[in-house]
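pasting for the record
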Amino acid sequence: KEAAENAANAVILELPPTSDIDKLELEVVEKETSFEEMYPQLEKNKRASKKKKEVQTVVEEVAILSLSSSELPVSKASITEHSVPAPEGTLPEYSIESWEHYGHLLNDGELVVVTEKLCGSNVRFTVSEMQQYCGSLHQWEAEDKNNLWWRCFKETDWINTFCQLHPEYILYGEIFGAVQELNYGATEGEIFFRAFDIWDKNTDAWVSWDTISFLMGDLSFGSELSQSWAPVLFYGEYDPIEVVKLVNEQSNIVGAEHMQEGIVIQTVTERSDVNTGLRIKLTLVSDQYTVDK
């Protein structure tokens, strides 16, 4: 944590050329120094206010990227009227790295599974002390019939069944449909859900693909793996040339008439890189999606 804070101590801020700040040059904004103290004359300047928010975001991102490999980004979001205190335990906020940056950590010939990367909103579900929790990426949501994450829970019956049967797990997934620019054939207000990962609260570790297949393939959950999980595009020996060919394809969600956002590549046997501690689950975004966005 100390290393993360040290790494985030300074961020270069280029101020916008407004009449108030034409004479100001590039400055280093120290994390411990408030924006108002450095530039009191810009208190009412909207463009400066926007820059302030951008700096705060960069500082937070630098802090996360500077964590040691053994640390996971766990939510420290403050409690608001729209959120509830987090359940006990290690509850990681979901994040995976880019294949373009870390693809070299995959070994040619090792067993991998490739799934479709869906475009929507991150969600997580778990039960703790007999209470159901629904979380977005950064907070655990207060129950509300109009809340997107609680709507997903109530409209997808098998999620409740899974959570009740397995309170030791956190189920991660994507809410998609009438959520982002890729709508997967959804009508106005219609949402869908597919899971894409499971965290074991007892062992503080991600569940292996074989265990996922066993859990999600059980018909007592009311839904088979093919209908509840992100579409599986490939299972077999890793070949980077062949895997990359999968990224610029049409979505495999029934009803979608557009490209997929990208793909996710993970090892069948859950593992992390021995040198960096990085989890070997990587994402590769479609070229066309990047251009269109």
